[in-house]
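step=predict obj=Ammonium transporter n=383
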Amino acid sequence: MSSAPEFDPLHPDGGDPRSVDVNAQYAGYEYHYIYLVFCAFIVWLIIPGIGLLYGGLARRKSALSLLFQSIVVAAVVTFQWMFWGYSLAYSRTAGPFIGDLANFGMKNVVVAPSIGSAVIPEIVFCLYQLLFCACTVQIVVGGAFERGRILPSLVFGFFWATVVYCPVACWTWNPNGWLFNLPSLDFAGGGPVHVASGWSALAYAFVLGKRKTKVEKLRKPHNTTLVFLGTVLIWFGWFGFNGGSALNGGLRSMYAAFNTNTAASTGALGWVMVDYIRHRGKFSVVGACEGAIAGLVGITPAAGYVSVWLAAVIGFLTAIVCALCNNLNDWLHIDEGMDVFKLHGIGGMMGSFLTGLFATSAGKQPLPSSQTSYPLPCPPSYR
């Protein structure tokens, strides 16, 4: 196998394909970026999954607008990411808090080795991280459902991604970021994705105020089947979300995928157990779905750092804590009907805390070269 490609400052775009074979630099490492492209494709399924989940939880008259919003939010974020989002988060000349505009308008984002991994072309890395941003914005706008209008939500999503997601992603995953250099442990986005989106959705709901409809009519999902289908797509997409965050096709990514399924499963069991006790022997499909999502949220920052049994504990504990916050809206006197803060804000904080508590010394170190084809030490956030 040839040596890993190196970034050439004289050719930041990776070379002119009319005069050189730009694929040759990745000879022997193709499966790494092919695997990441596959992960990106399945992460995309989370976007309609969230739309179906929100549509099922809302009232019937709001379901279609939430499905529509899931698609157009992805479109707006794609434009934002190409315009300046990617550069603000992942430019090589970024400061400790935010990137510059070195890659404004996708400048030089072509086939050079990416900032995240020397064996991943930058265009592939950019696509994968774009979908992270799109999923996060989609989660946030759930805080405005049945109150915020679609056009203002799209404008909000564009600027939220710019002033919140991109800086936090830069802190966490850019090698120049201040959290990256502590180093912090956040394998796939407990902070940038879940904590940021959960607290932002809470603020969004607080500013918009409560709906005027009676509370009893607001809390009943109009279509449990849509909730179930959305959860299935989210669960499936999360294999790419966590598994791909290793940024290689090595064994750590396989381990992260196993931990993802484990935490979702124990999360569903934990929430169902709470529901069974609370409702005196009755089960809830919606509760099982929310528990699975809570487990996925909890394991996101820990997926590549913990053993499989600790992943089970993280999913179980996160789901129980989120389920016990069932009356959170009443405590805070807000109307946040999609439970974004409960699942993502509280679940993300639980997952981040448990990552620090349970991360193993083996999980925090790169795998030996005899066990993985990944040629360079992984950045701490991607090990």
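step=describe
Confidence is low (pLDDT under 50) at residues 367-383.
step=end
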